[in-house]
Design brief:
By secondary structure, the chain is mostly helical. It is built from four helices and two strands. A two-stranded antiparallel ribbon has the order 1-2. Helix 3 packs across helix 4. The termini are far apart. The mean pLDDT is 76.
């Protein structure tokens, strides 16, 4: 199985404290070049579809969740149960 995220370049090494101290002794104080990291991230199609599914689940209405739960969707069933527990707790606090 491949990972949906893959780095394509390696970051260059940053100067160590010893190198910085040596440059300071040689009179190169204030002129330390720190390399910048360049990383390219690629998201696979399965990673993109998972992100789209998560986004869709987040914007789903309670009525849609109830309909999916009734159809056997386990995630929707857990969400509906959580919503019912939250509502029961709010009702208990109001009483």
């Amino acid at each position: 199985m491949t990972s949906p995220i893959a780095a394509t370049t390696k970051s260059p090494q940053a100067p160590t404290l010893a190198v910085i101290k040596d440059e300071a002794k040689q009179g190169h104080v204030g002129h330390v070049t720190v390399p910048t990291a360049s990383t390219k991230v690629t998201i696979s199609a399965s990673g993109q579809s998972a992100a789209q599914a998560a986004s869709q689940e987040a914007t789903e209405t309670p009525a849609q969740s109830a309909q999916e739960a009734h159809s056997g969707d386990r995630q929707a069933q857990r969400l509906v149960a959580q919503q019912a527990a939250t509502q029961a707790l709010l009702n208990a606090v109001k009483s």
